[in-house]
Design brief:
This protein is of the alpha+beta class and 274 residues long. It has 6 helices and 11 strands. The structure holds a DNA duplex (16 and 16 nucleotides).
Amino acid sequence: MPELPEVETVKIGLSELIIGRRIESVELRFPGLIRGLGVAEFTGALTGATFTGIDRRAKMLIIRTSAGDLIVHLKMSGRFIYCQNNCIDERHARAIFHLDNGYQLRFADMRKFGFFRLVTGGAQPAPELSGLGPEPLDLSLKQFKEMVFAKSGSARPIKLILMDQSFISGIGNLYADEILFAAKIHPARRAGSLTGEEVVELYRQIKRVLLKAIDNRGTTFDLYVDAEGRQGGHQYELKVYRRAGKACSRCGAKIEKVKMGGRGTHFCPVCQER
DNA sequence: CGTATGCCCTGCGCGC
DNA sequence: TGCGCGCAGGGCATAC
């Protein structure tokens, strides 16, 4: 579930909590969490290190430390928990950083899809960071038009292109549906069928929907909360996602749900004509 | 090469 | 009440 707006929200909240803190010890409860390094190398490198900053790329956090960059992907159910006592979600805790102020930074992940990769100085760059498309919020209209034009011969539905991280990064299933509804474009349309006006509208709605979701501190459906346990507020703004059978807020028609690329896909059959 | 499908994993909600 | 099934999905491996 965490897509660009949720990861951005976690980045902002976590920055306030951990930058400047020193890691006194590392507890790794699920070794499968770590990519690239062995458990001993990983914990050894981070013990004594200091958090120096946090950035985001696509749906990943890049947690800067004095020992290197920690790349984190939350995937479906990953979350950070900043706590001292009575830490919640004990049974899904996968990694625990004991900090120099007596607090812990925990990573909990029910489904175990998330991963950590520590890139130490001089090491190979993280493969997860290569091949990513541009950040949607840094994208110019000219650039976006060129990107869509390059896909004009593609047989793939526009929704799957939006979700393709090598095309544009950070958009997942939820925001792809919401963006296409906002732009009044049917998710099964091919890139080559979009008019010039539709491409401009798509560009505008990508930015508008993502910015609004960040403003709302993300969407909380099942599990997503920030490091202090606060839910997002964007779930109340959703127009189509998981609203199958309900009335379209624009025209009153029933929202439909189909499967596309194996993912639930929601749209208004009237507002988003084929 | 481009595209499609299955899988990883766990918990929840549904039907019987 | 309890069981089994399908669903949720990001991104990768594999197949065509």
